[in-house]
């Protein structure tokens, strides 16, 4: 079973569920209550849009329990004495690994939370999550050629620039070493 919550120093990463995605899409007033977090004003961020939400919900519905943890993840900034727990971004995998153990990741951070190293921390959490499954051998990610900040996030997380893809985006990739069993 894949863990559905993981922690980084400042973030709690929570795997999307059918209940959370349904609320996010159809009952947005209940979404922050179910999530247990405040929402940023510009939610949803970047490429995490309604189309992505629908895709993740469809995959979780079709795949049942085996799909849990292989699609969307919410990035929640941990509560502090000064601020409540807040949803600051989303990321995740585009599905379970293929036969060769390859998985694609993606991520977006809400505008007010950018420039604080949180995207780098989110990606590091996703890399660790992939390693912890023991099933992933290689990660890939794509970013627009003009998105230098995203490219730096990937490079700082051990990704190397691969070949450009036909739509003009840049491909990044990195090997994943499974986490040794305790």
UniProtKB/TrEMBL annotation:
Gene3D superfamilies: 3.40.630.30
SUPFAM superfamilies hit by this protein: Acyl-CoA N-acyltransferases (Nat)
Pfam families per record: Acetyltransf_3
InterPro entries: Acyl_CoA_acyltransferase (IPR016181), GNAT_dom (IPR000182), N-acetyltransferase (IPR051531)
All residue ranges annotated as the N-acetyltransferase domain in the record: 33-177
GO function term, MF aspect, one: acyltransferase activity, transferring groups other than amino-acyl groups
Domain of life: Bacteria
PROSITE patterns membership: GNAT
Protein name: GNAT family N-acetyltransferase
